[in-house]
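Tokens as discussed.
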């Protein structure tokens, strides 16, 4: 019973983080969950709660969802996943992880210090970001950063950035959930944990989302850069 309570508190925090930024729940939840439950239970549990989080955020941000912003990422990610899957035996994932970590640290530090102005991004950059996201996802299961960097470089408003990331990630989460269910990874124990943690992950997401509503675009981006900095540090040293 104690592990169920702790898992609920973990997802409360994870939901809060993604409620603010639009991403990051898995990065928070997986390392902490693996301290109390088996990783084979933790991973599908995070995916299930990821579907809950992204579905909730997609509903609250539905007026800001724009297929013209989301589709390039989705379309680009498909060949990226296919190529990344083929490169699993040819590329050293540790090198990719370290390079990506250094890139995230440098990008975050630069944006926190320099305050660069947003730019109007050409459409092909969206496809390229989607491709890189799919490629890195297939290699490392951590492909979010290219899409996140792309959206933060644009001149989009705060809620447009968050809605685009949410719309992109909700499809990934649903697809992964289906794969896990068909492969038998989602067990009865996973569903029991999900039943207990669902209310708390929704609460955390709602609180984080409300907090985002109260801050301006710059403060929102600072939250993203700080979290990307942490993600980069984990990739390099973890």
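Sequence:
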């Amino acid at each position: 019973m104690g592990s169920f309570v702790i898992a609920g508190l973990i997802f409360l925090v994870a939901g809060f983080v993604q409620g603010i930024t639009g991403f990051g729940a898995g990065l928070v939840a997986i390392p902490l969950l693996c301290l109390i439950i088996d990783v084979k239970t933790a991973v599908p549990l995070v995916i299930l709660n990821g579907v809950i989080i992204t579905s909730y955020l997609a509903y609250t941000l539905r007026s800001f969802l724009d297929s013209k912003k989301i589709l390039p990422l989705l379309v680009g990610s498909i060949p990226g996943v296919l190529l990344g899957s083929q490169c699993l035996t040819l590329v050293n994932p540790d090198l990719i992880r370290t390079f990506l970590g250094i890139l995230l640290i440098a990008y975050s530090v630069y944006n926190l210090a320099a305050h660069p102005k947003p730019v109007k991004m050409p459409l092909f950059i969206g496809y390229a970001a989607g491709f890189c996201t799919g490629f890195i996802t297939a290699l490392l299961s951590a492909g979010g950063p290219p899409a996140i960097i792309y959206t933060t470089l644009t001149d989009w408003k705060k809620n447009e950035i968050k809605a685009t990331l949410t719309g992109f990630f909700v499809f990934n989460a649903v697809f992964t959930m289906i794969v896990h269910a068909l492969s038998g990874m989602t067990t009865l124990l996973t569903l029991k944990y999900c039943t207990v943690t669902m209310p708390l992950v929704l609460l955390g997401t709602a609180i984080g989302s409300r907090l985002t509503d109260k801050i301006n675009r710059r403060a929102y981006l600072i939250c993203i850069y700080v979290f990307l900095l942490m993600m980069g540090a984990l990739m390099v040293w973890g």
